[in-house]
Amino acid sequence: MNLIEEKFILQNNNFDKNIEGSFTWRTPSNIALVKYWGKQEPQIPENASISFTLDACFTLTTLEYKLKEHEESGFNFEVFFEGEKKDEFKPKIETFFKRIEHYVPFLKEYEFVIKSRNSFPHSSGIASSASGMSALALCVMSIEKKLNPEITSDYFYKKASFLARLGSGSACRSIEGALIVWGNHSEIVGSSNLFGVKFPYKIHENFKNYHDTILLVDEGEKQVSSTVGHKLMHKHPFAKQRFLQANENISKIAEVLKNGNLKEFIAIVESEALSLHAMMMTSKPYFLLMKPNTLKIINKIWEFRAATNSNICFTLDAGANVHVLFPENEKEIVNNFIISELIQYCQEKHYICDRIGLGAKEL
Ligand code: DP6
Asked: CA-to-CA distance for 12 and 140, rounded, in angstroms?
């Protein structure tokens, strides 16, 4: 354990624990521009990644807590999702609690009720682990702050990101906004493998209010979980090269985010999306997560860009849905294009209009 990890261990656990109540956090999803794909234990990324924090896609979680009345060795919690008791969600949360217990040793002293819901349909193929785990991590940090009001806001958010990472890697990028880097990188001051940090340089006006319209091509359970996908990078023939490429793309995109060069932005972001899928297509076993309509949409975007010189582009996560990215000053022409040309390729014409957001909020 290094010094930074030690800093996140609650040093003094002798607080007056006899408290009860609830905390509610609304935390956003995020979309990576340079992707995280490949990790080591404990949730250490093989390369740095950077994401836009979203706004309309979020999880809302309430954590009710009460000091246990009787001695008991394990974690005690119930989970409700969209109003229904969900025992099938418990193992994932139990694993998360086990991983973070060392840093928040009061967890076993309370009984919890977790009540959660997403702003997007559960079956939409949009990963809810980022917003779900970050919401829970923030609720846990609110309890820590209640026990120990001395902690600074900087420590609060850093540790929330640190804990969220132990739940799901990309969740550490769902605490703050608007652009978050996770993973050590020599050109990003303050970057860390242990938590996400705000992009530390001035972001060009071109990226203000950037849009992300998510086209739901395939609503359903993911074919390959990201946990399995990350593992496949361990023996992947192109892994080393991929991690180098991603870190180089972080250097390139850092410049672009400062200078506002949208053509260069598009080249990096689309290449990242296709490289991510190329990794899945060349692993053992191999996966093809794009659907025919994913490719139709990509080709339509390329045709439209060639014809209009628009700065529209796409990115993908580990699935068939397409994230259509475009600047604020093109929203009318791109929205018209999406409605007239692209939504026909979505399942039941479903899509979600989102944009770059400012991070989690306590309610
Ligand atoms: C393709 O964060 O979901 O979305 O750490 O195993 O929970 P775990 O994986 P997860 O992986 C996200 C992968 C990605 C790319 C990205 O968001 O950077």
From this structure: 16
Give yes or no for residue 123 having a pLDDT over 70.
no
Answer for the pair 284, 235: CB distance below 8 angstroms, yes or no: yes
Interval 253-288: pLDDT, tens: 999 999 999 999 999 999 999 999 999 999 999 999
Alpha-carbon span 128 to 130, nearest angstrom: 6
Gap from CA of 352 to ligand 1 centroid (Å): 20
- Give CATH for domain 3-201: 3.30.230.10
Sheet strands side by side (includes 351-355): 313-315, 322-326, 211-215, 351-355
Does residue 292 have a cis peptide bond before it, meaning omega lies within 30 degrees of 0? no
CATH number of 209-355: 3.30.70.890
* Ligand 1, pocket-test mutation among 33, 36, 174, 212, most atoms within 8 A of CB: 36
Residue nearest to atom 11 of ligand 1 (CA): 226
- Cα(14) to centroid(ligand 1), Å: 36
Non-local (6+) Cβ contacts of 210 within 8 A are 52, 325, 326, 327, 328, 355, 356
* Domain ranges for the chain: 3-201, 209-355
